[in-house]
Amino acid sequence: MENFKTALLHHRKEKPVYWKDSRELHRVMQGFPSIFRAILLELLDRPMSRHEIRDFLNRMARGRHARGIGAIQLDLEKHLLKAVDWKVLEDINGRYHLTPGGREIAEHMQKIIPAFIKWILSPETSSFLSLMVHMVLSILKLSVGFLSRSAGLTADGIDNAVDTLSSFLIWLGIKFDKEKLASVFILITMFLSVGGVALTTLDKVIHPGPIQEGLIAFLVSGLCGFIMLGLSAYQYLVGKTRGNFAIMCQAVDSRNHFWTSLLVCGGILLSFFAQIWNAPWLFYADAVASTLIGLMILRSAVELVRELFKKDGEGAEISHFMSRNEERTREKILLKWLAGQLQSSSLTGEELGKRFTVDFCEQTPKVLLLSGMGYRPESGADLQGYLDLFVKQKKLIRDDVSYWFVHSSRILAG
After folding, report:
1. Which residues pair with 91 in a beta bridge?
2. In this structure, is the dihedral angle defined by the CA atoms of residues 81, 84, 89 and 94, taken in order, positive or negative?
3. What is the rounded CA–CA span in Å between residue 200 and residue 289?
4. Which residues have a Cβ under 8 Å from the Cβ of 395 and sit 6 or more positions away?
5. Do residues 322 and 251 touch, judged by C-beta distance below 8 A?
6. In sequence order, what are the residues at sequence separation of 6 or more whose Cβ sits closer than 8 angstroms to the Cβ of residue 404?
């Protein structure tokens, strides 16, 4: 399949049939909210009435893509009129059909969305992005760390600098199909970074003192931490999607940087209070933070060594951090859905299963199918496990045949 850049380049070279050029097509397409563009994708298969369009928006609102749906539901009539005026849709006997121009826009999205998802979730893209982020953050942390004499921030900067090298090794491993070897080198660099952190910590212990420009160091460490948390989520998604052990190694390391940034912020804060309270012993908090950083890196390195030498059939489940978050999201989606279904009366498991199959399996919005995102169970059998879980958690009540919801109004409000 074409990657995103190739598909986009091909589309730009290919002159639209209905629209004057690609710029006009993109201008019209971008003139509508993203949720409305999802409606255009649905209209590729069949014309829809206003009622059917609102039902589609309600189904979207049950999933992760609820943001912005409430606003478009209120302004749906305005967007429909605009689409008709721009000759994207036409109203025939109360049902909306795509015009030739609207079909061209929808078909363009149908090609570009999966190509973009494939590109953004590719190991090559992930490795390049990781390399750039680590390079920028390592320079920033080391510069501010040396200027402020923060052992914790300097230690984190050393680790980031080593990660820059490991990101480059990952890229080489993917390019030359040597991912296992690249993983070994990453482990070596992690152990080397532990040595660098130890030297920085020792210097702080021998020469304790206040952190200069503490506010700047605090803000830089906090900002870098949240950037690394986002990068970890992205790397874990790519690693799981592509089954790439080396990318998952990076996800674990990036997650650790988030926690180390919090440690560094704590050390900087205590150093500030040391000057206010005239408590010189608090200056060692920065060295303690640096020591903890080194221990966390060492622990991760040992963990990854164990994963690296697992038997081939065991997989490489390094971190359950992101998977737990995804599971909580699914539970929240299903709780909101069950609250709506059981708001006025109880339903049997069979009745819930039929509705679940229709809402989540048979009527999955095309935009989710193309992007590969959202909760898309294979069958209604997935529901039973969650029903048992919610009964155990006392969020549902079950009698001999039916289910009742507990505090449905609170869930709906959330």
Report:
1. 96
2. positive
3. 11
4. 335, 405, 406, 407
5. yes
6. 342, 346, 396, 397, 398
> What pLDDT shows up at residue 27?
92
Whether 142 contacts 163, CB under 8 Å: no
Joined together, the tokens standing for residue 19 give 């629209």
Contact between 261 and 228 (Cβ < 8 Å): yes
Q: Which two tokens stand for residue 250?
A: 């990076």
Q: What is the pLDDT of residue 243?
A: 58
Segment (H or E) for 397: strand 396-398
Structural domains in the chain, CATH included, are 4-120 (1.10.10), 123-314 (1.20.1510), 321-413 (1.10.10.10)
Least confident of 241-255, 266-280, 307-321, 400-414: 307-321
- Is pLDDT at 323 greater than 60 in this prediction? no
Write the CB contacts of 83 (distance below 8 Å, at least 6 apart in sequence): 32, 36, 89, 96, 102
Predicted confidence at residue 2, as pLDDT, reads: 43
Supply φ then ψ for residue 21, to 5 degrees. -160, 180
**Which range among 188-192, 238-242, 410-414 shows the weakest confidence by mean pLDDT?**
410-414
With a cut of 70, say whether residue 213 has pLDDT above it.
yes
User: How crowded is residue 68: how many other Cβ atoms within 10 Å of its Cβ?
Assistant: 14
Which residue, chain included where needed, has tokens 């920033």? 140
Tens digit of each residue's pLDDT (9 = 90 or more) over 237-271: 887 677 565 676 677 778 877 887 888 888 888 88
What does the DSSP assignment read for 33-100?
-HHHHHHHHHTTT--EEHHHHHHHHHHHHTSTT-TTHHHHHHTHHHHHHHHHHTTSEEEETTEEEE-H
Burial of residue 267, with CB atoms counted within 10 A of its CB: 0-12 exposed, 13-18 middle, 19 or more buried: buried
Tokens 């060492």 label which residue? 298
- Strand 89-92 to strand 347-348: parallel, antiparallel, or no bridges (unpaired)? unpaired
